[in-house]
Design a protein that fits this description.
The structure holds 2 protein chains of 2 kinds.
Chain A: H1 2-47, H2 52-96, H3 100-103, H4 110-143, H5 148-159, H6 162-165, H7 169-201, H8 206-232, H9 237-272
Helix pairs in contact in A: 1-2, 1-4, 2-4, 2-7, 4-5, 4-7, 4-9, 5-7, 7-8, 7-9, 8-9
Chain B: E1 14-23, E2 26-36, E3 41-45, H1 52-60, E4 67-72, E5 75-76, H2 79-82, E6 85-88, H3 100-110, H4 116-126, H5 139-151, E7 157-161, H6 169-182, E8 188-193, H7 196-199, E9 205-210, E10 213-219, H8 221-224, H9 231-238
Parallel strand pairs in B: 3-8, 3-9, 6-7, 7-8
Antiparallel strand pairs in B: 1-2, 1-4, 4-5, 9-10
The chains are: A mainly alpha, B alpha/beta.
Protein name (chain B): ABC transporter
Keywords (chain B): ATP-binding, Nucleotide-binding
Organism (chain B): Adlercreutzia hattorii
């Protein structure tokens, strides 16, 4: 039954997600093109510097290209955010609005229902995360004139484990991307839990309650790890580096626990507590 | 010597025991107890706010009792009971982007007792194109499609929440005919309504609810033969404002 539920969920998600992914990729490619073009225009401006008018035009064009690249970067970011909003909206709509009457009367275990939704949502979020990482890598390559080490350094920052593995290198890049995927799972799991808690607790404005819960829980977790991080940095340089790496690993474990716990608790609340209005 | 095998009666199709539902201080359903055998068409009658919808929602598994117990063919509310219950809520539950053929495929995918050929036949007679998205259909047509899909299941227990409320007389006839055609002796139908006159000819039993409490559970003959009046007149007398 889990397979059927997953397939049903994917059928509903794929089409809108494909459109969002296309927007993301096109924006990313155009943005990278703008970065490359900025480089070319700067070089051309160097040759034209003897002629004031041409140099000024090149400078204006550079500004336009930089602005376009920034706008494209914003679009890539917005697409990434939009897919999470879309996932959360679909979860809420199919579970706690009128469509819930169809979903929650299916002869399946609630655990299977929520797990299938999580798996489909995570798969989607993972594809978008990987696409964003790939576009970021290409953008770094374009900015750094093809310096592959810079890409490794940037990707390893996603993990925050570089203190343990050393920044740069394939291993730290892979860990960085893996950590970004864990963050995607955390975001989806916490969103499901917040929406379920909102549907259960709030009499009115359930979505607003869910957003407040999501931000509140996320803020508390971040605050705790910030405090632990600051405490970890208080030792000598070698120890601090090791401690920071350890804190990052702990955060990854907590993110995974929040994702798994969010799914399990959501399933329990839907099965035993949440009433459809 | 033959071993003595005691005859075990099958569990009632629906059993509710001291079922209570509270929303804060409001008691929507108060210690509701009923046992329902297979093969009955039961009218769940009562004015607005009497707890009809709450009761059906709890049996269907979309609301949870504050206290008490529900069993469908011996099963607690869960996947096993949901496989036996075909529930028509009073609101449309399909996504507006879903096409009719996708709705049929959805039901066929998840309900083993769903008769897709019967559903297609009924929809064809209604003149609903399978390629039409839900958003392109009128509210009345969506309700008919939903009813068709619900009644095209060979379920043990049908829960129909206000199926004839707010529809025109022609649609009302279609709905009632669909319900009657789908009726099989091994299944039961619970139909909630306050339009008693339209349904009383089809009912075997009725349950009267007021302020979440059961006033009466009896065969329709109790009123028609015992009191020499119609169920509609009895209902109006009981709930006179």
């Amino acid at each position: 039954m889990l397979g059927k539920l997953f397939a049903q969920e994917m059928r509903a998600l794929v089409k809108p997600a494909a459109i969002m992914l296309a927007i993301m990729v096109v924006a990313g490619v155009v943005g990278i093109g703008c970065i490359e073009a900025t480089d070319a225009v700067s070089r051309a401006a160097g040759f034209a510097s003897r002629y004031v008018n041409e140099a000024s035009a090149a400078s204006n064009l550079t500004v336009v290209l930089v602005m376009a690249a920034l706008f494209c970067a914003f679009l890539v970011w917005a697409s990434l955010v939009a897919v999470y909003v879309f996932i959360a909206m679909r979860f809420y709509r199919t579970m706690f609005t009128d469509e819930g009457y169809l979903t929650l009367t299916l002869p399946v275990r609630t655990g299977a229902l929520v797990t299938a939704k999580f798996c489909a949502a995570f798969l989607l979020a993972a594809v978008f995360t990987l696409a964003a990482c790939a576009l970021a890598s290409l953008a770094v390559l374009a900015i750094s004139d093809g310096d592959g080490d810079m890409v490794s350094v940037v990707l390893s920052l996603l993990g925050g484990w570089s203190a343990l593995t050393g920044s740069g290198g394939v291993a730290s890049s892979v860990i960085g991307v893996a950590n970004a995927l864990v963050s995607a799972a955390y975001t989806v799991g916490l969103a499901f839990l917040s929406l379920t808690l909102g549907a259960w607790w709030a009499r009115r404005h359930k979505v607003a309650a869910a957003v407040a819960l999501y931000m509140g829980i996320g803020w508390v977790i971040s605050l705790l790890f910030s405090i632990v991080g600051v405490l970890a940095m208080m030792g000598d340089t070698g120890t601090a580096s090791f401690m920071l790496g350890t804190v990052s690993v702990m955060q990854t474990v907590v993110n995974l626990a929040v994702a798994a716990g969010g799914v399990a608790l959501s399933a329990y609340l839907v099965r035993a507590k949440v009433d459809l209005s | 010597m033959d071993a003595f095998v005691p005859e075990v009666a099958p569990p009632p199709l629906l059993e509710c025991c001291d079922l209570t539902k509270r929303y804060g201080a409001t008691v929507a359903l108060d210690r509701f107890t009923v046992s329902l055998a297979a093969g009955r068409i039961v009218g769940l009658l009562g004015p607005n706010g009497s707890g009809k919808t709450t009761l059906l929602k709890m049996i269907a598994g979309v609301a949870h009792p504050t206290a008490g117990d529900i069993r469908v063919a011996g099963y607690e509310v869960g996947p096993e009971s949901k496989a036996l219950v075909s529930y028509l809520p009073e609101r449309p539950y399909f996504s507006r982007s879903m096409r009719v053929r996708e709705m049929i495929a959805f039901f066929a995918d998840f309900y083993e007792d769903f008769d897709a050929a019967l559903a297609r036949d009924m929809l064809a007679r209604l003149g609903v194109p399978e390629g039409a998205p839900c958003a392109a259909l009128s509210k009345g047509t969506v309700e008919k499609v939903q009813l068709t899909l619900v009644m095209a299941r060979h379920a043990a227990l049908y829960l129909l929440d206000e199926p004839i409320g707010g529809v025109d007389p022609a649609a009302r006839d279609y709905i009632l005919q669909t319900v009657i055609r789908a009726y099989r002796p091994q299944s039961s139908i619970i139909l909630s309504t306050h339009l008693v006159r339209d349904v009383e000819a089809f009912l075997d039993d009725f349950i009267l609810l007021r302020y979440g409490q059961m006033l009466l559970h009896a065969p329709v003959a109790y009123v028609t033969q015992g009191k020499g009046t119609t169920l509609d007149a009895f209902f109006r007398e009981e709930f006179r404002c």
